[in-house]
Amino acid sequence: MTGRLNDKVVIVTAATRGIGLAVTAAAAREGATVYLGARNMERAEARAAEINADETVKANGGVVKTVYNDATKDETYTEMVEAVAATEGRIDGLVNNFGTSDPRKDLDIEHTSVDTFVDTVTINLKSVFITSQAAIRHMPQTGGSIVNISSIGGEVPDISQIAYGTSKAAIEHLTKDIAVQVARRNIRCNAVLPGMTATDAVRDALNDTFRDMFLKSTPIRRMALPEEIAAAVVYFLADESAFTTGQCLAVAGGFGLATPVFGDLQALATARG
User: Fold this and answer.
1) What is the pLDDT of residue 1?
2) Domains recognised in the chain with CATH numbers
3) Is the pLDDT of residue 270 over 80?
4) Are the CB atoms for 134 and 146 separated by under 8 Å?
5) The pTM of the whole model exceeds 0.85
6) Which of 33, 231, 250, 255 is positioned for an S-S bond with 218, CB 3.0–4.6 A?
7) Dihedral angle over CA of 165, 171, 177, 183, nearest 10
8) End-to-end CA distance of the chain
9) Hey, which residues does 66 pair with through a beta bridge?
10) For the purposes of burial, counting CB atoms within 10 Å of the CB of 48, is it exposed (0-12), middle (13-18) or buried (19 or more)?
11) For residues 86 and 6, what is the distance between their CA atoms, to the nearest angstrom?
12) CB of 51 within 8 A of CB of 23?
């Protein structure tokens, strides 16, 4: 068997759970050598072992390895990239998956402290900027692909999490800047914008009432599966997207597309039969 990512070397940051873990597994099943970036190396090794035991991964020649990366320490982004490049000789794909926000502190314009706003925006942007800058130096002339995990929250204003939304909007602009600036080197840069995704972190953070309110405005009325986000990422990593760059692809079930009263209108239509 062969995969769509055979012979490609890919780094995925913050990849021991959720979307990052799903991307790592999907890329390995497509035959890539995937470096799972993480701070907790014991957990990372356990996740790598689980994926490497997958029969599809074995059949397609994929493998998951681990590399240390701590988002709170800027130098580890560059060290992570240099370690992979030293071992593999090149980097074909980079997935900037890290992103953070504290919903207890990241509120609206009136109630969010300057420190919370600046710190959240800074760490989220640095995770893309520093890692991309380092990886580009090791991408081959035959082409490379950077995929940034943004959020539908970077497109649609919200009543809370002003820092997180701003950081994700900035990452979308950064994605386009990178795409334009490195296209001459045959390197592409795209972003995937997940909507509400059924990860453990989301399930733990959101109560049923909030989840139902969000899904009420989502035409495809369910949460995304991490594997569905991963499928979009694999497309951008694969050669089939070789002429696609600077794109921000929402994988959000249509959230933000419909009229603001979509949920109410749908409820009325359902009631009428």
Assistant:
1) 65
2) 9-199+224-254 (3.40.50.720)
3) no
4) no
5) yes
6) 255
7) -140
8) 49
9) 36
10) buried
11) 20
12) no
